[in-house]
Amino acid sequence: MHVAVRFPVLHPREDFQRIESVIHGPVAMLKRSLAFALVGVSVANAFFMAPAPRASATTMLAGKATLDTLDRVVLTDDATGHSATVHLHGGCITSYKAPHEVLGIRADAVFTGAKPIAGGLQICWPQFGPGAIQQHGFARNLPWEVSAQSMTEPEVTLVLKESAESRKIWDQAFELYLTVRLEGDHMLTRLTAKNTGKTPWDFTSALHSYYSVSDISKTTIIGTSLSGKTFVDKTQDPFVSAPLPASEMGITKFLEGVIPDYKGPMALHDKARRVRTTVEHVKGWNDYILWAPVGNDGMGYKSFVCVESGAVSKPVTVEGGSEWVGEMKISSRAG
Q1: Average pLDDT, the chain
Q2: Alpha carbon of 182 to those of 34, 89, 97, 187, 328: distances in Å?
Q3: Closest CA to 113 of 150, 140, 147, 79
Q4: Model confidence, pTM
């Protein structure tokens, strides 16, 4: 069951209450659902599988940005109170509430489409970091489309396909899919890179993941059996590789580096808020990237830490007609 509501222009803070008043009733009987909302200055159609609570759709950017003109998808799970917001610009997951907010948005983030959204879970593909093409690739810069959504489950799949624009940057045939699903006490993400051509290509990739913390100086990064694992410190020139001395590390200075060939899990322990957020690699992702721009007040460095799921230590080769899949899940609870 779904309801189609048509408005010439939708404004997040003004129109959701009006939309919900139209679609309540039979649709509200779907207890565990996906609320699919396209919000933007030129959007004419909004489709809802069930009414999303207004707070989930409008408070995600409060205090973080003054303007949001981008289309987005909102997932809600009434059984757990969890929700997620996925912007079509860059396929960026900008909010995951469990029910507290798990993801961070940088203080300098903009939501106009002029550049990648600085926060949430960004998709760096087909290149992580600097290299032959633009920094962190083009997937986070381009508009994605909705490929599929469930009528009964809080799940959506977005797609980015090769285009004239992408071929100017990277002359390869591909389809890139992002699936986001709320599953009980966690959120699952699945990134699928399909080679739709006949010749193989290589890529590196990461989910540039910003996690919200109340105070970075009172937050630690914890990894199961992390002690002794190699850490490539990218703050040094040249890079320095050394074993980690312990399985828990504090963040007292600028942090940037890679833990190669380590699947985790990894956790952020926000001791001030008494919250532990855990990242688990299910398949595909083999590395962790750590980043914290300590000292950068313009970014709002005190309120986030990046613990990124990556395939960056060595390129991934995808043969023609084949695909690569990376899955990870995030959970966050008191602790």
Answers
A1: 83
A2: 9, 21, 10, 5, 12
A3: 140
A4: 0.82
